[in-house]
Automatic annotation (TrEMBL):
It comes from Gigaspora margarita. Belongs to the chitin synthase family. PANTHER family: CHITIN SYNTHASE (PTHR22914), CHITIN SYNTHASE 1 (PTHR22914:SF9). Its main location: membrane. It comes from the Eukaryota. It holds the Pfam family Chitin_synth_1. Its EC number is 2.4.1.16. This is Chitin synthase.
């Protein structure tokens, strides 16, 4: 119930350019769904990301990709990048579609000391596709 607030609270640190929360794969973890290899693999992937990847990357101040499902950026930090791009459609295609480019540009700016932060107290539930066509569509 306080996930959005906790995500926002991370921006009280002036060096935070972007923050992401913890993604929880659906609460309905019935045995039938867990036996599906597509569902089980995705739940495992999200759990490993929440336990190992995001917290350890956050220690260094650089998270390779902030998940588009539950993340936020400081407006000033993104506006700084947008001002350096001549065509705003390039910004929307390159940076928002390829989130890792945006994350790298944020922390590699000259005269800036931006960091990317993981807030584990902010949680959002996401739906997991249960069949291959849905999974492919989601990844695309």
């Amino acid at each position: 119930d306080k996930s959005i607030y906790n995500l926002w609270k991370a921006f009280l640190k002036p060096q935070v350019a972007g923050v992401c929360g913890k993604l929880i794969a659906m609460k309905d973890r019935s045995l039938v769904k867990l036996l599906n290899p597509i569902v089980g693999a995705q739940i495992f992937e999200h759990e490993i990301s929440n336990i190992l990847d995001k917290p350890s990357e956050s220690i260094y101040g650089y998270i390779q990709t902030l998940p588009k499902e539950f993340s936020a950026y400081r407006y000033f930090s993104v506006q700084d990048i947008a001002n350096n791009v001549e065509d705003t459609s390039i910004l929307s295609i390159s940076y928002l579609k390829y989130n890792y480019l945006l994350c790298f540009d944020l922390i590699s700016k000259n005269n800036r000391s931006w960091i990317l932060y993981y807030e584990s107290s902010s949680q959002a539930e996401i739906d997991i596709p249960s069949n291959l066509p849905e999974y492919i569509h989601q990844q695309r």
